[in-house]
UniProtKB/TrEMBL annotation:
Superkingdom in the source lineage: Bacteria
Taxon lineage: Bacteria, Bacillati, Bacillota, Bacilli, Lactobacillales
Family: Belongs to the flavin oxidoreductase frp family.
Keywords: Flavoprotein, FMN, NADP, Oxidoreductase
Domain Nitroreductase: 8-165
Organism field: Enterococcus ureasiticus
SUPFAM superfamilies noted in UniProt: FMN-dependent nitroreductase-like (SSF55469)
Molecular-function GO term, any one: oxidoreductase activity
Full protein name: NADPH-dependent oxidoreductase
Amino acid sequence: MNKTIEILKNRRSYRDFDENHVITKEDLQEILDAARQAPSWMNGQFYSIIVIQEKKLREQLVKWNPGNPHMLKSSVFLLFIGDLHRTKMVSTAHESVYPINESIEPILLATTDAALALENAVIATESLGLGSVVVGSIRKNGKEISQLLELPEYTFPLFGLSFGKPTVEMKVKPRLPEPAVVHYDRYHPYAYTLIEQYNQTMEAFGEARETKRWSQKFSDYFATEPIILTEQLLKFQHLLK
């Protein structure tokens, strides 16, 4: 099998890292360079990456998000932010208007670009024999994080990435049945039994941190008011009216 495809198909999340393992500056730079080379809409690169090095900053992140202690214990923690501040500077320099509060499109662009950069970083990390885990729940404290890290106007935290040397081996997590995800030429309806099948697959997988069936977890999630306060954060950052 092609080595890159092998890495992609065997990727899994690690949450336990060797606290004493130090990643070389060269390896960190390789990961950052790989992230920055990700595809980007019109080459706009509507994101920034913050390498969180100070221990006190990482401790504060864990205080806000105690379910993710690896943000402190991993060798490196990266924060990916949607960055529309840069293009605001461009608009100012060109003396043009910047009406990004009139559409959700700029936020989608920034989020997509950041996600592509994040995935490049994940695969680069895996290729170096390291492990990683994506942290989306940082958005619960997006406003506080923005203040802590002195993020400028028109930026917003999206997700983090902890990586280092894993101390606990993890199994590759099963994905939804292919017919529920991959369609050819047009969207093809499928029976709900595929989702029930996936419920059974995940129960057999037996991930300890999962306390609900897959379908129940997302039924509950979308039935309640979101706790990921992206909209409120964007209002705070003056992106939405």
